Amino acid sequence: MKNTMKALVFAAALLAAGVAQAKTIKMEVHGLVCAFCAQGIEKKLKSMAPTQAVFVSLEHKVVAVSLKDGQDIDDATLVSQLKDAGYDVRAIARVDDSLEQIRAEAKAKR
């Protein structure tokens, strides 16, 4: 009985962790100046296994990555990838907004 209870508690904790995990990473990235920059970042980040989709806003200096279910990319990896490409990551946040919401927000700020 104790083992069953422990297993149930463990399963509930795993489910709660999955629900709480943000599926989108939003970054403020400086050094973006042209469509070629955006295309390069998009290609680099899309090549990473956990990435589902990428949005880049040159105007707002925003790069957002939506993650596949149950996947994650640590901040250090993202900073390293973008720094190696010549960009400066100023902020990283894990948000509950979808990529579509971030895209709409950027479009509304124009």
Explain this structure:
This protein is α+β, with helices and mostly antiparallel strands. It has a single domain, classed as 2-Layer Sandwich (Alpha-Beta Plaits), CATH 3.30.70.100. Helices cover 46% and strands 25% of the residues. The protein contains four helices and four strands; from the N terminus they run αβαββαβα. The longest helix is centred in the first third of the chain and has 19 residues, at 2-20. It is globular, with a radius of gyration of 17 Å. Residues 3-20 have low confidence and may be disordered. Residues 1-22 form the signal peptide.
Give the helices and strands, then pairings.
Layout: H1 2-20, E1 24-30, H2 35-46, E2 51-57, E3 62-67, H3 75-84, E4 88-95, H4 99-108
Antiparallel strand pairs: 1-3, 1-4, 2-3
GO molecular function: metal ion binding
InterPro entries: HMA_dom, HMA_dom_sf
Domain HMA: 23-90
